[in-house]
Design goal:
Rossmann fold, ProC C-terminal domain-like fold, eight-stranded mixed β-sheet, 51% helix, 2 domains, 268 residues, alpha/beta, 11 helices
C-alpha cells in the first residue's frame, strides 16, 4: 500500500511533526514512511513509533499520486533529497528547510510539482509551535490547506508572502533560543541573589509561561503590560533602567536582523 505521507529527514523537527500528526489522529503509522539515511536514527524512530517504516531510500511502489512529502533536512542536503523524492513520484512537498526558496526547490522536482514552504519552531515538540507557510508557483488553495492541516497538529499556522519567511525565521524560528537565553540569564541572576537553583528555575519558567499567557489572553500591547508592572521609582523601574543602559532592546533587534540575513544567505 502506498504511503499517504513521506517524511524526508527524521531529525528533531521531523519527528516532532510525526508525534503531533499521530497524536491528533491526522495520520496513522501505517500510512507514513520516513526516509532517513542514518541507520541509528532510523532505529530510534522505529522504536519510538511502533510499526513505522523507516527506510534509507524510497521504492516506487511505496508512493502514488496522492502521496505528499515533508522535507525536513539540513539546507545543504535539501536539493539532493528532494531530487530523489521527485524521482520516486512525489509531486507535492511541504518544505521546512530554512532559507531555501520555493523556486529553488521547484527546480529539482518534475515540472508542475507543488512546493509549500514553511517555518515551524521548536515548541512544536510540545504541541505549542507556530508555523508560517507560503505556497510556491504551482500551489493551490487546496495545497495550502493540506500544509496548514499538517502543521496545525503541532501548533498554530499563519500564512505569509514568501518574501516574509526569512523574517519569520529570524523572529519565531530562532526566537525560542533568545527566550531560552533570557531564562538562563534570569536563573543565573536568581542564584547569584541567593536562591537555590531549583527554586530559581521554577520561578523563572513560571514567570515566562504566565507572562506569555497574560500577553496572549489580555490582547494588550506588550508596552502596556510592561508599564503596568513598572511603578515609578520602584524595583522594576530600576531593573529596566539597567537593561536599557546596556542596550538590550537594540541587541534583540540586531539578533533578529542577523538571523534574517543568515536565512537569506542560505537561500543564495
Amino acid at each position: 500500500m502506498a504511503a499517504q505521507l513521506v517524511l524526508v529527514g527524521g531529525g528533531t523537527m521531523g519527528s516532532a511533526l510525526l508525534e503531533g500528526l499521530f497524536s491528533a489522529g491526522r495520520l496513522s503509522v501505517a500510512e507514513t514512511i520516513v526516509v532517513e539515511p542514518v541507520q541509528e536514527r532510523r532505529a530510534v524512530l522505529a522504536e519510538r513509533f511502533e510499526g513505522l517504516l523507516c527506510v534509507s531510500a524510497l521504492e516506487l511502489d511505496q508512493v502514488d499520486a496522492n502521496t505528499g512529502a515533508i522535507l525536513a533536512v539540513k539546507p545543504e542536503m535539501a536539493e539532493g533529497a528532494l531530487r530523489a523524492t521527485g524521482a520516486a513520484g512525489i509531486h507535492r512537498v511541504l518544505s521546512i528547510v530554512a532559507g531555501l526558496p520555493t523556486q529553488r526547490l521547484e527546480a529539482v522536482l518534475p515540472d508542475g510539482a507543488v512546493v509549500v514552504r514553511a517555518m515551524p519552531n521548536t515548541p512544536s515538540l510540545v504541541g505549542a509551535g507556530v508555523s508560517a507557510i507560503s505556497g510556491g508557483s504551482h500551489a493551490t488553495a487546496a495545497d495550502l490547506a493540506w500544509a496548514e492541516e499538517l502543521l496545525g497538529s503541532v501548533g498554530i499556522v499563519v500564512r505569509v508572502a514568501e518574501r516574509h519567511l526569512d523574517a519569520v525565521t529570524g523572529v519565531s524560528g530562532s526566537g525560542p533560543a533568545y527566550l531560552f537565553l533570557i531564562a538562563e540569564a534570569l536563573i543565573d541572576a536568581a542564584v547569584s541573589a541567593g536562591l537555590p537553583h531549583g527554586v530559581a528555575r521554577t520561578l523563572v519558567v513560571q514567570t515566562m509561561v504566565g507572562s506569555a499567557k497574560l500577553l496572549d489572553e489580555s490582547g494588550e500591547d506588550p508596552a502596556v503590560l510592561r508599564a503596568q508592572v513598572t511603578s515609578p521609582g520602584g524595583t522594576t523601574a530600576a531593573g529596566l533602567r539597567a537593561l536599557e543602559a546596556r542596550a538590550v532592546r537594540s541587541a534583540f533587534v540586531e539578533a533578529v536582523l542577523s538571523a534574517v540575513e543568515r536565512a537569506r544567505t542560505l537561500g543564495r
